[in-house]
Specification:
The structure holds two protein chains of two kinds. Chain A is α/β, with parallel strands linked by helices. Helix content of chain A is 41%, strand content 19%. Chain A has two domains: 46-125 and 260-322, Periplasmic binding protein-like II (D-Maltodextrin-Binding Protein, domain 2); 129-250, D-Maltodextrin-Binding Protein, domain 2. In chain A, strands 3, 4, 5, 6, 7, 8 and 9 form a seven-stranded mixed sheet that branches. A two-stranded parallel sheet of chain A has the order 1-2. In chain A, helix 2 links the parallel strand 1 and strand 2. In chain A, helix 2 packs across helix 11 (303-313). Chain A is globular, with a radius of gyration of 27 Å. Chain B folds into two domains: 54-101 and 137-336, Orthogonal Bundle (MetI-like fold), CATH 1.10.3720; 399-664, MetI-like fold. Chain B is an all-alpha fold. Chain B has 31 helices and no strands. Classes of the chains: A alpha/beta, B mainly alpha. Chains A and B meet through helix 1, helix 3, helix 4, helix 6 and strand 6 of A and helix 2, helix 8, helix 14, helix 16 and helix 17 of B.
Chain lengths: 325, 666
Amino acid sequence: MGYIARKRNRPTLIALALGIGLLLSGCSAAKIGSTSTTATGKKCGTFNLAVNGWVGYEADAAVVAYIAHKDLGCTVVKKNLTEEVSWQGFPTGEIDAILENWGHNDLKKKYIDTQKVAVSLGSDGNKGVIGWYVAPWMAQKYPDITNWQNLNKYTSMFKTSESGGKGQLLDGDPSFVTNDAALVKNLKLNFKVVYAGSETALITAFRQSQAKQTPVIGYFYEPQWFLSEVKLVKVNLPAYTTGCDAVTAKVACDYPPYPLDKIAATKFVNSGSPAATLVKNFSWTNDDQNLVASYIAKDKMTDDQAAAKWVAANPDKVKAWLAGT
Amino acid sequence: MAVLSLRPRPAVRRWLPAVVIAAWLACWPLLNGRDTLPLAGSDLTSLHRWINARWDTIDNSRSGNPFFHYFIGAIRTGLDAAVTFAQALISQPSFGRPVPVLGWLGVVAVATAIAFLYANLRMALLTAASFVAFGVLGLWQQSMDTLSITLVAVTCSLAIGIPLGIWAGVSDRFDRVVTPVLDIMQTMPTFVYLAPLTLFFLIGPASATIATMIYAIPPCIRLTSHGIREVSPATLEASTSLGATEWQSLRKVRLPLAKQAMVVGINQTMMAALSMVTIAALIDSPGLGQTVYQTLQKMDIGTAFNGGLALVIMAIMLDRVTSAASRRVERTRRAGRLRSSAYRRWKRPAALTVAAVLCYLSYTYVWAAVFPTLGDTSSYVPRAAAATSAWVQNHLAGFTGALKNLLTYGMLNPFESLLTGTPWWLALVVAVSVAALLVGFRTAAIVAVGLVLLVVLGLWQDSMVTLASTLVATFLVMVLGLFFGVWMGRSDRVDTLLRPLLDAGQTMPAFVYLVPVLGLFGATRFTAIIAAVAYAAPASIKLVAEGIRAVAPAAVEAATSAGSTVGQLIFKVQLPMARRAVTLATSQGLIYVLAMVVVGGMVGAGALGYDVVAGFSQTALRGKGLAAGVSIVVLGLMLDRVMRAVAHRVELAAHGPADRGADGGH
């Protein structure tokens, strides 16, 4: 019995010995100091920045957050949210700013005009374009395909298992407004709208189209980092004129140009935070954004690395944004 | 069965459903396209507009409303604090320190000690290896964030679910009330309630926790209730006759006997909670979900796979440890607490001492707090995954395109045009009469109510498109389920090989493997079907395998010694005897397929899945999105009830009075 008991005690002994050994070995190692968080700028405090789920926006947020933290000493809290949910954060103070808003007139009416909890801080310099695109090899091989009037000529090429005998127009990201069903009908195109359902699905389709030379026509938009990988070509629809898209069911014209704008919580703007001034001044071109976005998406840099690289190369722009902070 | 006497003779009844279906097929070309209730992508019905308006009303009135301010506010603050506290312990810098309270070594030690004490030594080793793997993959902090929020959600789920489960176990009335609610909670797509949750509980950990809990509570309630109901009446009677009050017999007899089912409930709750990680990332829930979701935006398959792999490891570890713990509960109960050896006496204090020492080290020293960076090793997995995905897309696309076209043109398209082209009233008549003839009037009534609801919700045609894909996917799931299930059930070696793959299929976030699949099959309904099959087949395979294994060895031996071939053995003995498991596998497969409808909508399936996703993203469409979510629930409950009724009849046919008529139908 005594033997058994001793044997069964062995793991305990080993464990104890191991523990003591570890304790001893640890004594000479580096200890954790009690440090306070580095940047606690009294002036700025916390800056809650919404980050919507596309890389162009991530590039905006990377640069603004980097400058707000480094030059203004803000504690930047980035919140990864969808667009609608970001707007919901204005009345509760959980979101201070949105840097790249695509239209959303319904939300503007609700939060800016009715509830008065948010304000528009003007354009961020980027110009949004929505439309129908084809891969570059198609535009080269069929030069007249970029004119909508010729699309019916190519219907059979775009037939798929999903399009029920018609040409397939691949629609896509559920967060974007689309008039495509109405457009197809009103322009009398022999196409069927097929909902890809996500940006990932759209990008994969265009990427395969270019790599395998398979015909795809679909809904896309710029600025978008993927365009720096495959330079999609826009198909010209009847030109947009003010009001031509007033009645959704009767739309027969291209999408309007989207001046992308910055939205901020009213409370945040009135607080006098230097971050609010930074957001107000922030403005850059599509090329700037695409560059930072490709640092992030293609070169796999972290947000901060990408921002640091761009900021170091563009001191003048940054200086202008910091004016008045 | 008074109903039975009303029915025609079995021989006639066997042919009637076939006659109804033949009549349907004959009518179809004549009526094709009439009354099919289509609704275009951005169109709304008055019901959808009405929901939109109600929604705005709630949104506008919330600031001044005391209900929101106090009740919801209190829940929110409590949950936020709990998650923040858990993160402070293991994942985020806290209490003025640059690192969490417990470093990696401390977390590994505590987790290993728990696995050792509640399961066994093998599980302890598995746990330690899993946690080290999180660090090696370079995802220590993200994994700990996920673990924090999962633990809080699971703890709260158990705190609510176990008492409710006990109540449902002792009260038939409450059980009847709660069961449909649980069904709805499990079939309602998360996307439907994600945006409203952030409206009530705002953006932050509280919303993510509640979203997780809605999905994770039902298994806990169900299994607790099941465990309490399973206690044999004889045992209960014995305790009553000994003079125990109801409360005493609950506490001393029912609860201890239900303990194993409750532990299985904990296991299921954890798995359900983990399956919500990626979706919760959409409302800023921290952790591995962010890794997966963020990197997919950049089409960085490698890193997304890496995050998915960490999730799979976490799920498998939690599953194995809780399963081992539940088996031990069962063994302890059977064996009783007889022996108390020195080993047992010392095991607990020893494990706790070692864990405490390691915790202290990880609190104090940098090397034990921050997981060491292992040079380039953490990028092996992402690079290998990205390379594999690229290779697959480049080399297999021709073959897979042909396969997609074959199945789509050969099976899906005809079936779908049959369903969508039929006038809604004809579909209603056909479905209700087939259900009445094959199963019974009760089921026919359920089908009627369900189909009428689909019409009322305004998404009839989308529902039919989704139904067609769902049934095709379920068919494929059962083909795989029977093939691999039988194979697995007959061979332990195959079982050992396949099981981790099946677990991975169930826990890997769908989008990770969907990107290469999208490359192969394009944004199509077929891709969506593959997603559903990948998620649903593992559950069906496991259930079939269990059924095959449960067939009495004596029966198998008798058949073998009588000279049956392997084929005869499988088709004449094992499968018929496992038919209960096979029907269960089918109904579970169907529910799992429906759970993927929304993911399907994101890869080209359109219809209800797309409506739900679009409703989540566009304010104008949220009424429609809610209606689409409810349509999915209606489809799910309707099909589930039909399957259950069929299973019941199969049971009756096998064991009850000879009623061969029911057998002929399927």
